[in-house]
Amino acid sequence: MSNNAVINFNTDPKVKKELIKTLDEMGLTLSIALNHAVRKIIAEKRIEFTTPEIPNARLRRSIRNGEKELKSGKLKFYTDMKEMRKAMDV
Questions:
Q1: Which pLDDT belongs to residue 62?
Q2: Does residue 4 form part of some domain?
Q3: In the prediction, which pLDDT does 76 show?
Q4: Which domain holds residue 34?
Q5: Domain assignment present for 22
Q6: Do both 40 and 18 map to the same domain?
Q7: Are 76 and 87 in contact (CB under 8 A)?
Q8: What's the domain count of the chain?
Q9: Which residue would you say has higher pLDDT here, 16 or 74?
Q10: CA-based end-to-end distance of the chain
């Protein structure tokens, strides 16, 4: 009798193939990598999902507009909240 439990889950076959290839290049097995992930979740009581910080089209446009305003001198800078509030009341 084995001391191991089996966990089944579904994933895209291409993803599985790429994962196994990547892990093989690292000298690891799928079992080692998944056990590590499971143990980390248990130890930290959290799971972290990250996404690349790539701005969408709207944000890129806003950044470009902000950079143009900065270069043109149209942006106003305030040294403190009192100064900013005074400018907003005008």
A1: 93
A2: no
A3: 80
A4: 13-44
A5: yes
A6: yes
A7: yes
A8: 2
A9: 16
A10: 80
- Asked if residue 49 belongs to a domain, the reply is no
User: What distances in angstroms separate CA 17 from CA 7, 37, 44, one per listed residue?
Assistant: 18, 18, 29
Give the residue carrying structure tokens 């000298």.
Answer: 27
> Where would I find the H helices in 1-90?
13-25, 30-44, 57-72, 81-89
Q: How many CB atoms lie within 10 A of CB 85?
A: 10
Question: 68 with 75: CB under 8 angstroms?
Answer: no
User: Cα separations (Å) of 67 from 33, 76, 84?
Assistant: 44, 13, 21
Structure tokens at 60: 């890129």
**CA–CA separation, 42 vs 36, rounded Å?**
10
CA distance linking residue 34 with residue 49, whole number of Å: 16
Contacts of 87 (CB under 8 A, 6+ apart): 76, 78
Answer whether residue 50 is part of any domain. Answer: no
Q: Is 54 helix (H, G, I), strand (E, B) or coil?
A: coil
Residue 83, number of CB atoms within 10 A of its CB: 12
- Structure pTM? 0.53
